[in-house]
Batch of 3 targets.
Target 1
Amino acid sequence: MSDSNHDESSKEDSGKSSLSRRQFLGASAAGALAVGLTPNLSKLKSLQIRPRAATTTLKLISWEPFGQSPEFPAWTKVVNEFMAANPTIKVEWGGWPFSTFDTNIIAEAQAGGVNADVVMAPPEAASTLIAKYNLAVPLQSITKKLGLIPIPAHKQFTLNGNLYALGVIDVAFALTYDQRLLKAAGFSKPPSTMEQWLAAVKATTKSPSQFGASLINTTAAQADWWNQLQNFCLPYGGVWAKGTTLTIDSPANIKGVEYWLSLLNASGIKGTSETALTKLVLSDRVATQFNVAAGLSNYKTLAPKLYPNLRSTPPPWPSKKAIARLHPLLVMKSSKNIEASMKLVEWCVTPKNLYYLTVTNGYPIIPFSNFQDFEPGYKKYLTNTPWLPGFLETNYVGEFDILGQYTYAYAQIGNIIAQNLERAVSGSASVAQALHSAQTQAKESLHA
Amino acid sequence: MQTNLHRKLLVPILLFEGAFVIYPIVRGIILAFQQTNFGKTSWVGLANFRQMIHDPIFWASIRTTFEFTFAMVVVWLSLGLGVALLTNWAFKGRSFVRGILAIPWAIPDVPTVLTFTIMLDPNFGILNRIASWIPGVHHQIQWLTAPNLAFIAIIMMVAWKGFPFYSLVILSSLQAIPDELYEAARVDGAGTIQRFRSITWPSIVPTLSLLAVLAFIFSFQQFTLIYLATGGGPGQDTSTIAILIYNQAFQYFNYNYASSMAVVGLLLAVIGTILFVVFERRVIRQRYLQGGLG
Amino acid sequence: MAVSTVAITSAPARTPPVRNPWPRRKRKAKEAFRYAVIVVLCLVVLFPVYWMVLSTFQPEKYTLTYPPPFWLHGFNTNAISSLFNQQPVASWLFHSFIVSAVTVVVTVVLAIPGAYLLSRLRFRGSGAFAFLLLFTQLMPGAMIIVPELEWFRTLHWTNNLFALGLVYAAFNVPLGCWILKSSFDTVPNEVVDAGYVDGCTQLGSIRRILLPLSRSGLVAVVIVAFFGSWNDYLFASAFLTNRSLYTAGLGIATFISQQNVQLYQLMAAGVVFSLLPVLLYVSVQRHVARGLTAGALK
């Protein structure tokens, strides 16, 4: 469908969503009344035209208001500025914490549509909303208008030539380390080869007080385990799947995961829960991490002892490749205010605002390749933040590059691999055996 | 005999349960025969079930479910019986002890998992400190991640959380046994084991069989404790059907497929329950002549 | 273990004549043994509770160490105070309380007629009714959420604590019926019949005769319904998208993955969250034990 007929199609949408929309507008009208002497109040007087009230309320759902509080103020500021620039549009935040976000948004989609106008979603959920539920509106007109070139990771959100989601947070991995702990063990430079990383992990592990690396390795945290582990097909140039062919147990993957396991064994901290691992990191007891940049700026307050010594370096394998996961914004087809919603998305990806979000929240990568043309300060910011340069030197690949069509089965593949790999972690199987049975299981479970 | 009263009483319950439980269940069953693709929902007949037949993970979870429910019925009932028997005599501080022994039941699931995860931590956990006192144990035991051990650790945790319910119920049915029966048996010269076999056991068997049905249902439905402690791993070791359904629906986004698994799960639960009830009616009631399930 | 303790506990040990020269001492020894077993059992059962409280108040430098100390090395209230400062825990608890209250009231109100139906009335389809109640317990919760959510969105009942209480009640009514039924069962027919003679109607007999005699059963229903709703987070997370309506179960579950919530704060949240059900339980403990089956009303 083309951009021009959004309004018509949304009017034809199911009664359910229009009902909830009406309730919504009612609520916003009530809100406006409560505020009292707003200049628009006179326009609201006639209650019969309430659905066409001058104030449009947009519901923006995201995990940002929940928990990741250090990131939220920057987002609030950008959205508030949007409301100031568009006085007839009011934006309400909603959503769920990141850990339950997928569950809840899929429950909503399945129950007749996501009850929101604009959605920020993790990449897999975004792809699912687009491809399985067909709930999103094409957004390429926005990038065209702004002259931005989306980075290739947007392939995951492209269907039949339409781009249905625009990346705003690029969660990129690199090797981060505590330079104080490395120095104390005699490493004046960050590891630049795989052997060096392993040696550094061994040298900095002084169990039970200090550990060389914190690698997530419990099935209780399998989503985050997989999140990290998916990078370890890259050391020897493997991929988990090519197009529609699964290659979980390819020799390159086996070698890569064996390397991961040797790091885990050397780190001296197997089987500990993710919460406890985080606690160890924050109390400055972990030397190296394979980490995402988003959230590291939080360490300033959460880990004041670690933060001044926090540095990054590209993954120490020859290709310097790592995964970047793209969290985008989508506009819901069921929205009664598609135009206003697209305006909001446009506002968020406008270089000035995206730049502000990036710098404030410490996202290293902006998901538009020609971004520096708009914001020359970007490069400077990257080099001036002490823990960022390593992220900058990393060669990023998207999920499509390592998972092919199985990007749509991201979590399922991840669970299958994690659950099988657990046996290799506990020593009751070899990595090759574990990946081999993961390959067999994945093949049987995913080929309907 | 009763003409209208039962209707008046039935209607509100049926309406309420119909709206909030039965209707959603029926909707769930319908979804099992559908598939959603690019926003279009279509009927696919038995396709989801056919997929299930070839899905090794599904079969593994069925096996795990049976092992887990069987283990829980046995563990809960024997723990419950043991604790009930142990506390069923007149001793000082008896109600205090009974209160203490029921506290796990009052602790919600999330704090329970958090506590056990800390206690069972292989590197910092108190359980490994205690285990290290046993001669010959010196490496860090991976309670929640090693094959087989994780299953045992889960049973330990679920048993701890749930046993008070069973011991309380068994205890109160023990207390219902008239003392005169024991007196009479003693006069007849019956030994302790004999008294248990001829008096205690027959009096509590109806309760035990009802509890067995409940234990079966509760363990079949167990989700939070397992999901937060092991996520179903390692391998499929603790992935019961409740876990798999949740994952399929909300992690893998295969909602219709999950529904079809839920239908199979529902069928299995119904069959299991009917078997229990039939067994209870045929065998136990005939032998012990007491009411259990209605 | 079960069989050997049976004898000990079912009745005081028989004292055999003549052969045993020190019957009294033997009995004393047996008693001491029983006590010892009970003490050990209590310690084992309470240990996780102790550990939860200990982890909350243990000063930070003793957490995640090996060997973990068995005792408190100081008293660190930082976890509890920062928890209350950073999160609206009090309002979470209040919301949980409201939802649980709705659940309990609705469950009790519907379980009474249900139990009466099961216990006292014989009608066509009574077996089907009994099975229907059981059936409601058999569908995995994860599958009910979506149809329920669909339903509640049409009714505009999402983000509504009262409606959430109704859902929990729906899952607890069947259990309540079963528990109360067994309480009703123990009231002898003669007692109820005597009521009729005194001019009670059938309904009146519930209020005047059955309920007063089944108080323990009612308390047990209240406890089961309360625990059920206090514990849940799956339904709450689907139905409450408005943070200002969060229940404690939901709030704490969302803690687990948050980077800025420290481990000891999580434990503190666990303790706070457990406190009310434990206190409630302890205060009515005697009734619950009796009410879960009506056996004690001999």
Target 2
Amino acid sequence: MKQWRAIAWQDIKESVRAWWFFIYALIFGGTVALLFILGVTESQILGFMGLGRLLLTFIQLCVAILPVFVLISTVRSIVGDRESHVLEYWLSMPIALGDYYWGKFLGRFLVIFLPVFFALIGASVWGLYIDITVPWHLFWLYSALLVAICGCFLGFGFLISTLTRHQEVALSVSLVLWLVLLLFMDLILIGVMLQERASPELVVSIALANPLQSFRTAAMVLFDPRLAVLGPTADIILDFFGRVGFLLYALIYPLFLGFVSAYTGFLIFKRGDQI
Amino acid sequence: MIQIKGIEKKFQRHPVLDGVDLFIDSGDRIALIGSNGAGKTSLIRCILGEYSFTGDLTVSGLDPRKQRVAVLGQVGFVPQLPPPLRVRVNELISLTAKLMKVSVKNIHLVAQQLGLDIDRHNKQIFFKLSGGMKQKLLIAIALARDPKILILDEPAANLDPDARETFFSLLARMPEDTVMLLSSHRVDEISGLVNRVVEMDQGKVVLDEPFVPSTEQGA
């Protein structure tokens, strides 16, 4: 077995034993169950009902809470191992730093992605069981969006984890990052920019540079192809990207951000003191 | 084997290693002594390639920062405090065996010699073992691979007298050309094992001389 695979597998085994994973899996699995129990599949929004309505609600909840969960649970990975001397021990083994770092990254990615993905699968299987049509196109698009959300915030988490020397600092930085991204979501941003009389194109560009906003808009575009809920902003987005172009942007851009962050983290990890 | 020339390491302008020169040859069994903060652990971390530093340090002619896999492939290391690894004992053994290319059976064998019955604790999480059991397991993992260089940071601190005796006899039976670097506060604890003593103080080597146990001196 390659070393990075062994490290990834080890990280998965360690993570699934941790309390945070139990709570994480319970929240996302429980959310789907709760949505079924509350009869969301019976309600309707913009013509969406049945499982499509449930998946839509689930992805909106994911956009709201998944980033902060990913950050909190992953930001301590490297810095926590460093503080507890776990890193000192593993790095005394003949492992390439890249194998260790990317093995941890892959393991953590699977640990945070699979519970939300299994929640989607669980919803679809239950939908089939109770004879509701499963909108497979939405299922796959939402799965891809979840990959992008997880990859993006995992990259941010790993970068913060290598930059900081204490878990408390790492946690604080990740919360500040999340709050800044929340603050710069459309409504607050537009309010501030309107006061400063900035051009709408600039406002929309800044908003879409925010991965939280691009996820949210992508989730909307799936059920509202003309983005009617966004008003005139929709024209700027759709004129520039088109619907498919915007979906591709919302998938590729956050993954790119996540990879650049994780890679920067790796360079910092490799260059400085590892412990 | 290990060549150290003028290495310096600072933390926020405070030097922890201040121009350390040391040449360690095959068969050297060194007691690395000094008080807390003398620089022993920092020096070990530089040899393991875990700290960046200025100066020259090579292990068998290799740079531990740039060629860490080749360097650490020769090294067995036991840390001062067992890390809180959240892995089962059998998982730890199987992972380290894979990483160090050593057989699981060898690790079991050395652990057994140290009085640790791994089969009884296989499913237990490592960090839930007692301090002594953790230390025995880490020693077993380090010794099972027949390392060319053995670096032990206060290795016997958690061991009961019997295990300590067995451990020291295992070390004494290591091949003659094995390099041993045993960090300790006191040389008398490891006097039977070493042939050289290096003392550090405030990041510098203040004493480096051959060591002859007092019984031999008297003979």
Target 3
Amino acid sequence: MTALEAMVSLEERARLVRRYALEATARTRASHVGSALSAADLLVAIYFAAMRDAVDGPLGDHCILSKGHAAVALYAVLRQRDLISEGDLDHFYENGSRLAGHPEPGVPGVVFGSGSLGHGLSVANGLALGKRLAGSEGHTWVVMSDGECEEGSTWEAAMFAARHELARVTAVIDRNGMQGMGDTDAVMALEPLAEKWHAFGWRTVEVDGHDLAAICAVVRPSADVCGPPTAVIARTVKGRGVSFMEGDNDWHYRSANPGELARALADLEPGVA
Amino acid sequence: MRNALIDELTMLAEADPRVVLIVNDVGFSVVEGFQARHTDRFINAGVAEANMIGMAAGLALTGHRVFVYAIAPFTTYRVIEQIRLDLCRSRLPVTLVGLGGGFTYGQLGTTHHATEDIAMLRALPNMQVLAPCDAFEARSLMPHLGTGDGPVYLRLEKAGEIAVHASKPDVAPGRGVRVRWGADVTLVACGTMVQVALAAAERLASQGVDAGVISAVSIKPLDSVLLDELRARPVVTVEEHSVIGGLGGALAEAAADAGAPAPRLRIGVPDRYAEVGGDQAYLRSLMGLTPEGIAERVASVFERAA
């Protein structure tokens, strides 16, 4: 990160991520804007406060957006890290674009492509093991959806990380309480979610997933080589930042029409409109 | 084949610190040597194959040369999406070692039969599919495992098979080997069906049919020599795998694309489950995959042609 980049506040970064998510999904009529708004603060905290510039490369710090449907938020973050260009952002979701609706491997900054839920944590396990075998201090973060905790493979990965004491894995669960077709509670018995992760051998912390300072405090890279991995249950609001999208699950699939987009952007940046 | 592979891997791990061996809670009396010598690079992933494949991908992303060792159905059918997205899409050089190809573990029932594995993995971009016929072929393939631009499915059977070769043959991805010359017809086989095809060729010889045999160790990429063979004489494919999508399917597709004559017969497991237990010899017999059964079908083609 350059000195100039470091001067931009995390709040401003998160606002830029939300702005891009709204505009890009409105322009392309892509789904999942609610999911992107939900995860925006989590990604900003990990990418701009936790990941270390000096710990890079195949054995360095990595973040996997395992809830790949929030890809627009990730792309906006990668743009702010100068890993992809403004031109890349302009072509999101278009024919031939490398920025698809879910992140493909090969996009700079995307160590692992995602989009099918329940893969990211297993890959993080391998990354963390590989880094430890090679003597690297690299840490691995995984941003997951709460619906993703319905995948059996999530719990396979959870058991493995605990058994192998992968202290340098942090799973951040975007607990907005909603999934494609409704409230998570109405679909599957996810709760008590924090207790589940704890019972699987994870150090478990709960945090307000829109309080950037609070998130930063719980996603720091681990100094310990071995020990329990960390699960952060981030209490979030789907559609966060846009009053008429917050808590309305229609925005899992809908995108804003021009009038809605104008209202949403005004919501996001009061005083700018 | 199984023991040869682990021997080779144990030696390879001495020379190459990137080698990691992962099992899904199998390998009793086979993997202990590796485990003892390379403790930190031996991982029992437990009975959790989805995590096993994703974890293998993560290790490969950090530059490790990863071998996954499991009974074939559990490192193919069970995890087909992990293979597709975690390994193939990212072109990661992970080697999936599937034990018990075909009916090797016949008595254990349908869960442990691997008779559609080649078809499933062959369809995935960036994946290579190799099925050696004996330990010499398996050893010849070692330098090609985990060094290419994508994953490899190495389809093995088990230990104690009869050697077809007397020394390591020159086989590789894209290159099989002729093990018997015959002017009238060529049996193109893979895995230990090569032995069965050789026995069938003997029977055919006694009936006046001069049959050759090719060990088609590389099913993907397919050996281009096989297209020349199709143009030269009738070809019959022989495999302990479904007649759909395996070696015979691959060769038929390649023939169509090249405008070459199609294989005259595709001998394999008919499109059905065994539905009964039984050892490998019994189930081969049930499916017509014996020297007698193969010779009879090949001979009948010649009779019709005559």
